[in-house]
Amino acid sequence: VSLAFSNNQLTDISRNSVVVGLGYRFKDVAFSVRALGSKQDFKSDIILKGDISYNMNKTVLRKIDLVQNQVSAGSSNWAIGLSAEYALSSKLTAKVFFNTNITNPFIANSIPTSNSRGGFSIRFSL
Description:
Blueprint: E1 2-4, E2 9-35, E3 38-63, E4 68-87, E5 92-105, E6 113-124
Antiparallel strand pairs: 1-2, 2-3, 3-4, 4-5, 5-6
């Protein structure tokens, strides 16, 4: 909160955030892959993770002498992230993921946006 005496205005900036995360581990999941005439056996844990979050940012201009409130900036934002990991060996890990982010602005000159990304990655650790 800030108060400006030059224009009799109070600026109120607020932020609220909630994050919930869950995870589960499936122990000793085994499967085989046959490629180019050879067979490779894998046995490891599958680690599932999921997060959901909500963020709300808002800036309100309050004119003290006119008893007028105006939202000047801010948005509400939902984010969801899902992933699954499997260790192929002690140094090689495969991961599948999906993330989405949905933003709804509080002011009329901004448009709602939604971004999603997903894919897989392979991590090699030395």
